[in-house]
Every structure is written in C-alpha cells, then in structure tokens.
Amino acid sequence: MGARKRESAEALKTAKKALAIAKLNDCPTSPRKMRLVADQIRGIEVEKALAILKFSPKEASIRLEKLLLSAIANWQAKNEGSNLEEAGLIVREVSVDSGRMLKRIQAAPQGRAHRVRKRSNHVTLIVGIKS
Fold this sequence. Notes:
Layout: H1 3-17, E1 19-27, H2 31-41, H3 46-54, H4 60-78, H5 84-87, E2 89-107, E3 113-129
Antiparallel strand pairs: 1-3, 2-3
Helix pairs in contact: 3-4
C-alpha cells in the first residue's frame, strides 16, 4: 500500500470513529408518517432530540427514540473513553426509505374487492460529533 493511500485510509478511519450508525429495517409504519417525526430531529443535539421524541404523540416517535438510543450506545462502544455530555453529539442524518409492502384485499360492495397496501420502511440514523 502506498503512502498516499495509507494516509487517506487513516483519515477515513478517524472520520468513521466520530460517527455511529443504527438501522431499523421493515418497521411496520408507513414511510410518510415516519418522515414527519424524522424531520423534527434531523440536525438537533441528541439530548434535545430524545426529549422531542419522548413527548411526541405519534407512534413513530417510540420506534425512533429506541433507534436513537441504539445509535448512542453504538457511539459509546466505539469511543469508550469519551464522555457523552462533553462530546456534543448531534443527529447528523436520518433517512427513511420505503420497505416491503404487504398487499391485502378488503371486501367491497357488490362482490368487488379493494386492494390494501400495508407499507413498511427502513430507517438509518447517523449520530456524530458537532463540527
């Protein structure tokens, strides 16, 4: 490995150490409802984001709160000597993608049937140090 490649690999390694990722796959909530809650915490400090999620009346906030706590735990596992309060963590990125869709049929009048799409989503949450 050349010197330039080694230096860039070291830079990437230190940049990744400052970030922690948590993923939630196949969450049985529609992506539209989850994005409403995710937009509230994007770019906010972790403590404030936890407070927002705790007191939000939406059901998606319960799942996002659990995911945020998981991302914080992942960050603490990476940076064992660091203190959480002194680090100044923020929610760097929250992305909500559409997951698989269960297709069901609901009875309709006159012998017809309507299709019901039960949507799910994938959430990726990245926590990092304030830059």
